[in-house]
Write a structure and sequence with these properties.
Residues 10-239 form the ABC transporter domain. The chain is α/β, with parallel strands linked by helices and 312 residues long. The protein has 11 helices and 14 strands. A hairpin with a 2-residue loop joins strand 9 and strand 10 (216-221). The two termini are 29 Å apart.
């Protein structure tokens, strides 16, 4: 059953953005439902950030239509900015202002005043562990601290919809995990989130994702559904001479991809091959193999099968 209109926070149809004839985003259709984390997954230059900037009203589409929170974009961008939060890829706050001064400045931008202004600044400083850093200049903070401050300013006005562009690209793994727990807290409280990432493990945390390549959406859906329906079986091989085996397999019919992971070779075999293990054992290159076994797909496998040479 399709979602009711009130449950849709983003709807885009035929979205195109061209720069001097180059289509950075090429025919993007999107429907993003309320109460979820929706991720754009893809490498640098695939159109993720350009798409997000059109959704926030910062860029005008060359073609297509965008509706965000029931508002037409970019026509209603001025009204929309008070209903959304946006955290850019690079730290965009003021390094020569303290944590509190940055928050106070953003409160002014969003029209917060009086008791609400004071209470919201106090709330986000406590929630994002900034209270003890209130007088620290933003330019003197670590990557993780800056990330927390950027998130605090993005949610200061309690937006219905939060846009995050590569939010964890400059922080350590522990900070990344903690950051994602904070995102799920926001969703639990009623905020919908759109995030771009090139990290596969982050994309798996999203409720739904769009896989982007060369400005186009190659796949769209729940990570689990995409993994189950990717059209390939995943086989891991443990054997001597994995580099030579990989070279031989990549020239074989029925093989979509092969990549070494430590002491194993991870092979994507076309789904129409009924017995992929037997299919591989029949290959002379695998005679010395000690282990050939079917394993669970990953989102990286989905990415490989839907983009580049793996796309059929």
């Amino acid at each position: 059953m399709s979602a009711a209109l009130s449950d849709i926070v983003v709807r885009a149809e035929g979205l195109v953005k061209s720069f001097k004839g180059f289509r950075a985003v090429d025919g993007l259709d999107l429907t993003i439902e309320r109460g979820m984390i929706y991720g754009f997954l893809g490498p640098n230059g695939c159109g993720k950030t350009t798409a997000m900037r059109m959704l926030t009203g910062l860029l005008t589409p060359t073609e297509g239509t965008v509706e965000v929170l029931g508002l037409s974009v970019p026509k209603d961008a001025e009204t929309l900015k008070y209903k959304i939060g946006y955290m850019t890829q690079s730290f965009s706050l003021y390094g020569d202002l303290t944590v509190r001064e940055n928050l106070d400045f953003m409160a002014t931008i969003y029209g917060l005043s009086g008791k609400r202004r004071k209470s919201r600044i106090g709330e986000v400083m406590e929630r994002y562990e900034l209270t003890d850093l209130a007088n620290r200049f933003a330019g003197k903070m670590s990557g993780g601290q800056r990330q927390r401050l950027a998130l605090a300013t993005a949610v200061l006005h309690e937006p219905q919809l939060l846009f995050l562009d590569e939010p964890t690209s400059a922080v350590d793994p522990e900070s990344r995990r903690h950051f994602w727990e904070q995102l799920f807290d926001l969703v639990e409280a009623g905020t919908s989130i759109v995030v771009t990432t090139h990290f596969m493990d982050e994309a798996e945390r999203c409720h739904k994702i769009a896989i982007m390549e060369a400005g186009k959406k190659r796949a769209d859906g729940r990570p689990k559904d995409l993994m189950n329906g990717m059209g390939a079986n995943v086989i891991e091989i443990e054997a001597p001479n994995l580099r030579a085996i990989r070279h031989d397999l990549l020239g074989s019919d029925g093989i979509l991809a092969a990549a070494q992971l430590g002491a194993r070779l991870r092979v994507l075999v076309k789904q129409e091959i009924a017995d992929p293990e037997a299919f591989l054992r029949a290959n002379p290159a695998l005679h010395p193999a000690t282990v050939i076994e079917k394993v669970r797909p990953s989102l990286e496998d989905v990415f490989v099968t839907t983009t580049g040479e793996g796309r059929q």
